[in-house]
Amino acid sequence: MRYRLALPLMLVALLTSALPAGAQDKPAPAGKSGAKPQAEKAEWRSLFDGKSLAGWKTTEFGAHGTPAVEDGLLVLPAGDPLTGVTREKDDVPHINYEIRLEAQRVEGHDFFVCLTFPVRDSHASLILGGWSGGVCGISSIDDLDASENNTSSYRKFESGKWYTVRLRVLDQRIEAWLDDEQIVDADTSGKKISTRVEVSPSKPFGLATYMTRGAYRNIRLRELRPDEVKAAAADGAGSGAKDAGFDPDAAPAKAPVKAPAQPAGKAPAAAKP
User: Fold this and answer.
1) Which range of residues forms the domain containing residue 182?
2) What is the pTM (predicted TM-score) of this model?
3) Cα Rg, the chain, nearest whole Å
């Protein structure tokens, strides 16, 4: 039995001694492990916990509705004309960041997303569904709002349907996507960036609707990585819609929010942006 145990030990000793000096404990060179380095995961920060309006306050538009949390959703009832929420603190970066949220027009015929956000030392708003229902774009660039400047486009929105909204703010560019489609790619170099005066109370960061009931979920923020900023600056048009910005762990779709009953004999008011 003694010889059977000794033989394997002798073989191990011989094999080890045959290796070059220091090879037994020499660490592998950095980056030479054979495995490809994985891209750094995008780190998202939630701005809405689905339980409360912690971190938000009602935007003082006057004649506004009362924002609420219903079934895990942030809900903005129709105002006269505006209702909104604004961050209590200026806790959003002013450059090189990305916002992602899901939005639904529950009831109404005007914009269900007016996302006001910082751009360097100013602010702008992403509009979805304005001007009586379909205009999208940035308000404002060189004092031209989303219906007038070159970011303007038209989309048909369905009530009760969830839309994924993504906004990216770079040093000289603002980009936005609706689901997988890029709808804004604006060069802001040398341009005046501002909001319309009506939505100024939404600053520094807020959501608002116009005579429309809207619902929101999965409101998230992340700062762009240095490599993303560098790539965006190199190609002058961002890094595309389908990148780390889309978060695969977003909550599954829920049933549409039930719209409140319209009072008998009351016709909807004409909508303006």
Assistant:
1) 45-235
2) 0.75
3) 26
Q: pLDDT by residue (tens digit) across 48-101?
A: 999 999 999 999 999 999 999 999 999 999 999 999 999 999 999 999 999 999
Span 175-224, pLDDT tens digits: 999 999 999 999 999 999 999 999 999 999 999 999 999 999 999 999 99
Closest Cα partner for 149 from 175, 113, 184?
Answer: 184
Q: How far apart are CA 56 and CA 89, in angstroms?
A: 8
In a domain, 145, yes or no: yes
DSSP one-letter code for 50: S
Residue 87 domain flag? yes
Q: What CATH number is associated with residue 211?
A: 2.60.120.560
Burial 250-273 (b: 16+ CB within 10 A, else e): beeeeebbeeeeeeeeeeeeebeb
